[in-house]
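Prompt: May I have another protein with tokenized structure?
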Amino acid sequence: MYHHPEWGPSTPDPDGFRGDAGSMATIAPAEAPLTARWATSLWLVAVGAGVAETVVQVAGAHADGASMSSLAGQIAVRAVIYGALFVVIDRYFRRGVRWSRYLLAGLLGTVGVASLVSEPIAWVIQNGDLSTVNWSVSFFTIAALRWIHLTAVLTALALTLHPQTARWFHLK
């Protein structure tokens, strides 16, 4: 503590020469670049769209006569997957932990995209004719959610691999 002759005890040193803690520079962690922040948001949008699509599909299956006990296994698996992805995105990716970037890009960028497009592609191959589509509210809801989900994943993937995001992850 510095004792000034006129003011008495003083911290920090008003002249700035005594080297007390009040005159030290503070080093703050680097803020994530905009590309990483947008990637984080879009990964979370993708998870949210996946959860919403699951809810709509389970409701539709239940309305079509499927028992909740037969759907429970699918619900449990998806809940674990989406919960784990949320934790990885929120606790690790958002903070710049390197392995989370590789996990999200590798897992969701390949398996996730394949799972989103395989069902519609298989349907087109099997039926080959859009006149057989059941143009219901449920169909449009699932199609919109699938489109949001796929768009969010592809955009988040591009932002995750962006040079500014890569540089930030390598600085962590």
